[in-house]
Amino acid sequence: MSRRLRLVVFGLGVSGIGVVFVLAALLIPRFGGGDHPYRDLAVPAAVARSAPNVVSALNFDQRALDTLGEETILLASVVGAAALLRPTTSEHERSIVAEDRILSATTLLGYLLLPVTLLVGLDVVAHGHLTPGGGFQGGVVLATGLHLLYVAGSYSTLVRLRPLTWYGIAEALGAGAFAVLGVSGLVAAGGFLVNMLPYGRFGDLFSAGTVPLLNLAVGCEVASGVIVLLAQFLAQALTVRATR
Amino acid sequence: MDPSWLPPTVIAIPLIGACLVLALAQHTPRLVVDVAALVTALFTVAGGAVLLVVVGAGRVVTRVGGWTPQIGIVLVADPIGTALALLAAILTACALLYTWRYFDSAEAHVHVLLLLFLAGMVGFALTADLFDLFVFFELMGAAAYALTGHKIEEPQAVHGGFAFGVVNSLGAYFSLTGIALLYARTGRLGLAPLGAALTGRGADVLVLAAMVLVLTGLLVKAAIVPFHFWLADAHAVAPSPVCALFSGVMAPLGLYGVVRVYVTVFGAAVPAVVAHRTLVGLGVVTAGLGAVMCLAQRHLKRMLAYSTIAHLGLFLVGMATLSGQGMAGSMVYLLGHAGVKGALFLLVGLLLARHGNVDEVGLHGRGRADGVARWLFVLAALALAGLPPFGTGLGKAISEEAAERWWLVGIFVLVSAATGGAALRAGLRVHFGLGKPPTDADPDTTSGEDEAQEGRFPARIPMTMVVPVVVLLVGAVAIGVVPAVADRLAEGGRLFVDQAGYLEAVTHGAAATQTPAPARWWTLSGVALGVLSTALAVTLALLAVHGRFGWLGRLLDTPLRTLHRAHSGHVGDYVAWLLGGVAVLSGLLILPALP
Amino acid sequence: MNMFPYLVGGWLLLVGCLGVVRSRDLVHTVVCVSVAQSGTYVLLVAVGYQSGAAAPVQGEGTPVPGPVVDPVVQALTLTDIVVSATVTALLLGLVIQIAKLHGTVDPDRLNDLRG
Amino acid sequence: MNMLVMLGFALVAAMGTAVVFTGEPERQAVTLSAYGLSLTVLFILVQAPDVALSQVAVGTAVVPLMVMLAVRKVRGRRE
After folding, report:
1. 20 to 30 A Cα–Cα from A170, which one of A89, B56, B396, C12?
2. Which pLDDT score, from 0 to 100, does residue B98 have?
3. Is residue B444 very low, low, confident or very high in pLDDT (cuts 50, 70, 90)?
4. Which of B77-81, B123-127, B140-144, C111-115 is the least confident region?
5. How open is the CA angle B426-B219-C79, to the nearest 5 degrees?
6. Domain ranges of chain D
7. Up-side HSE of residue B466: CA atoms within 13 Å toward CB?
8. Which of B140-144, B228-232, B517-521 has the lowest mean pLDDT?
């Protein structure tokens, strides 16, 4: 289609959808209203299992299957991106040029922020059932933290601290651990993904049953997965070149 | 013993297997990876088979995590969903066996992605939660985009994967918007709780708009016109064993989703006649367009892809009857089609491996020495047209009976004849060198000349590549000759369209009422119509091989060119059609359903 | 005013689609797809909002009574964000390979999948 | 309070539109990051701290970084 015709088809479609959507939005319960039947069931259920962070309870207990699927999507796309960005037979990875080691302000900031970020990441993973955050958020923070080394200008250090094979294995084990915990629920408590551990005392680090364990598995998978993912993009942008 | 542990186990097997393969892949030889992946797929097949037996003519309901349907996620295995999960597992096993000698690279990416893809398909077929359906939809998608673009040395492959990814993702976001609207109205996410909440209130614009949006993503997956563009591109470029999965089970799962969601969620709120009329219309248009485009291809995988689109249209017509019989007919047809079409894709993969080419013209006569493969190709082409006793023929016969109206029966016969004829034409030209190679090249179509080599030009065809073809064809015959299959699916069809029974089973776990569905089997007219479409296909193929279309060919030239040009491979075009399609769908479903 | 947040969700979905349709660069296309998806987050959190309610994270010690905003939509949005990031990664990977093989990322100049 | 929430929604709508109408992918990585930040602000305003944390990690850091790297690779091919 020509650009013009394409925009005409799109325009007709959008006007139709727009009218329907506005008419539908008029019938949605008032914004900010108090009618949330699912919430009224989910919040007491979470509290009964000593999980103050109801969102975590939903993600790792009540709707844990969604999260299993979500982590599998992440796994699939990390493996998929690795497959799509593998160097082809007509490409090679050029060696990394050693950077000069002048301690600029950015470098210093990068090195200073690195431990802080890693600690924050671990904290977010560990307290996922108590405070905002969890395995996913913490995992991303951990992975991003490691990449502060790239910001600090030391791609070679980053590469040395990043044995990708092991992160690949850690990613697989993290994702597998979630499913295995699900199956253990089946064996131990008669139901897939059943929260089979004692719920503990409300607000304790070791409470809410399997929620912290699942958080840990996800944290491990997400941190390794995002590192592997970003590694592919960094390699493409920095080192993979066509062989002439 | 309570069988509720089985459905989640069947989802978990390929998932855990994929993680194991990925962990192993880094440090073990290729053979270990091949065996581990294949064993995982076979375990999933076994799990699916056991589940199918346990489900019987009822439903197995699993409350994941032990939560009630209002709080947690529920899995419901019924005969039709389980049959589709089993089909996905069998096709994945075939694909893994076929890839054993197919890819040179020692990478385990394909194995892991295929197993994750399988987990997504099984989850999609078994879940009874609308948001969970979206999650598994995306899981299928993520694995499928990467598999489509896997041949990264080939320009068309990455382009096709990209178009597929964009269109499918946007379709999924429309679905999610619909889910959000439904949640705003009802505060529920489970299919059964949603259905219960919408019962007896009638449908207003909010509910109808939500329905249109939710169905959009599923129709994109099912490649129904005008959401079908991605399918031909993706199938043309994906590795052949992956195509067998896409055509055989991924796209049909989209149709499964459409009917599942309509029946369980909207069955009581939206008049059946409105849904019926719209879906039949979409099915007829899809079948017709797919058949025409199928005949107009020279790229063998694109030809098979359009034939899949045509068949998806036919399945939708059968399912749109919203009757047990129509559902059963479509399912038998779908299973037979998966075997036949899978075999055809694998045979084309063999051509690609042996000759480095999938162009009907360029391969003219070059497949004469392919031994058993050339006879299998002709047989599969005839089966595609509906030759009894293949499952395709039986499914077509049952669907025709369910469709009732004579003109719909005519469409079934013509469309299956056209797709079978196109495949037969290619087989006769490539494997038997019949007719003269055509010389005119249409600039608006893709030829298959520059398709990248898959595999490594084996001098002899390896057994690992022939066995899956034979397995698939034997399976397609078995579906047509083992009465238990059609019987079980007849039961399944009846359960599938029974909204009240589904809601009852999820909320109270009550067993299905045991009124046996009438058995569906070959009838005299069914056999006759199957033979008729096969004969038409043969006639069409012979005419086409010898180029005898004369004035008809000249008359069709301009419209064909326009059609070719509309399938432009431009992702912006596809999205414009997507939006236009949603608007049309809104018009068809909302206006007549308003009080 | 009462429906404004819902309209923002719909607007983002459709404006993202518009971006895809008129895009002249596939990287731009991918970013527009992610904007379209963000429309779904916005719609979801808008649906779950309750005026004056607290975040669905109970305080330390004992659970605090009183309304909280709907945590379910937030759980869904979290999943949605992961999906968005992964889809973006895959599509960008494909774009990088398209650039290598076709020498262009202008959709108007990619014409190898016709008919 | 509600006024602030509405402003948040308006900001997100404006920023999202701006991202779409930024034609140059190089600059889009920046507007996308800013858009991610505006979504984060909105999520904080509507009492969704978990979502805000995800969004700030993914939407303002990881995704724009991937976009930037992809642009760098794609542009590198053209020169």
Report:
1. A89
2. 86
3. low
4. C111-115
5. 120
6. 2-78
7. 12
8. B517-521
pLDDT digits (tens, 9 = 90+) for B454-475: 655 566 778 888 889 999 999 9
**Under DSSP, is residue A195 helix (H, G, I), strand (E, B) or coil?**
coil
Of the candidates B216, B237, B96, the one whose C-alpha atom is nearest the C-alpha of residue B167 is B216
Tokens standing for residue C26: 């596939």
ipTM attached to this prediction: 0.94
As a whole number of angstroms, the distance between CA B75 and CA B77 comes to: 7
Contact D69 A133 (CB under 8 A): no
Q: Which of residues 70-109 of C touch B (CB under 8 A)?
A: 72-73, 76, 79-80, 83, 86-87, 90-91, 93-95, 97-98, 101-102, 107-108
Query: How many angstroms separate the Cα of B263 from the Cα of each of B10, B124, B322, B498, C86?
Result: 25, 16, 8, 8, 32
DSSP-derived secondary structure for C29-47:
HHHHHHHHHHHHHHHHHHH
Extents of the domains making up chain B: 3-590
Nearest CB to A47 within list C7, C50, C63 = C63
- Cβ distance of B204 and A73 shorter than 8 Å: no
Closest Cβ–Cβ partner in A1, A80, A191 for B143: A80
Q: Which residues contact B327 (CB under 8 A, 6 or more apart)?
A: B80, B259, B318, B319, B321, B492, B493, B496, B497
Task: Please tell me whether residue A103 adopts helix, strand or coil conformation.
Answer: coil
Q: How confident is the model at residue A90 (pLDDT cuts 50, 70, 90)?
A: confident
Nearest Cα neighbor of D69 from A233, C41, B181 is: A233
Question: With 90 as the cut, is the pLDDT of residue A61 above it?
Answer: no
Is the CB of B566 inside 8 Å of chain C's CB atoms? Answer: no
